[in-house]
Amino acid sequence: MEGRGGSAIPGAEESHFERDFLSSHNVYRKRHGAAPLQFNRDLCQSAQQWADHLLSIRTLKHSSTEHGENLYYKYSSNEPVDSWYNEINNYDFARPGFRSDTGHFTQVVWKDSKEVGVGVATDGNGLFFVVGQYNPAGNITNHGYFDKNVLPAGAAAFAYNQTDNITDQITTQDLQTMENGGRRKQG
Asked: PROSITE patterns, alphabetically (predicted)?
């Protein structure tokens, strides 16, 4: 069994998978008025360790981390985030709150989360486990937290500081490409 390799080492350059993973999150977050996430190497290392563990037990199971966490098995850099985001179809914005069939979506767009890390583990035979960890954690069930952190698409698409360099990298074209089910070309 092998992990994703050296890209989880603090200070290492982001891999193509990590760039796509972060970009997919930030496209969806922008749609819901949440500021872009920043990549966190410590979260990557923690997520990688848990992904390696999941591969060793071949079971999806949340860790005991204090951070928010999404789990997925299969592989492509956008696929896990797209799958998590698609839980929006089950979310009732008129009655905000936690539900087990929307918790991945709400973590992806949770406004107060500022950082994300990702870990990927594979057995080399097509089995992949993906772990996304978030800081601070989302899905806080205190009164009013979902109202404040999970906004409908377009409700406040630019509610955060537009002078942020990362914000400028996510364009309207990116949003349209994601809405059309397509992928941006790398280049």
From this structure: CRISP_1 (PS01009)
> 61 burial class (0-12, 13-18, 19+ CB within 10 angstroms)?
exposed
Whole-model pTM: value is 0.65
Using pLDDT thresholds of 50, 70 and 90, give the confidence band for residue 30: very high
3-state SS assignment for residue 50: helix
| Packed helices 172-179 and 16-31: angle between N→C axes, nearest 10 degrees | 90
**How far, in Å, are 30, 42, 114, 158, 159 from residue 168 at the CA level?**
11, 25, 17, 11, 14
Give yes or no for a cis peptide into 10 (omega within 30° of 0): no
Neighbours of 30 (CB within 10 A): 25
Looking at residue 65, the DSSP 8-state letter turns out to be: -
User: How many CA atoms, within 13 angstroms, populate the side-chain half-sphere of residue 38?
Assistant: 9
What contacts 111, CB < 8 A, 6 or more positions away?
A: 29, 32, 33, 34, 35, 148, 149, 150, 151
Amino acid at 9: I
Query: Whole-angstrom Cα distance, residue 34 to residue 27?
Result: 10
pLDDT in tens, 41-67: 999 999 999 999 999 998 899 999 999
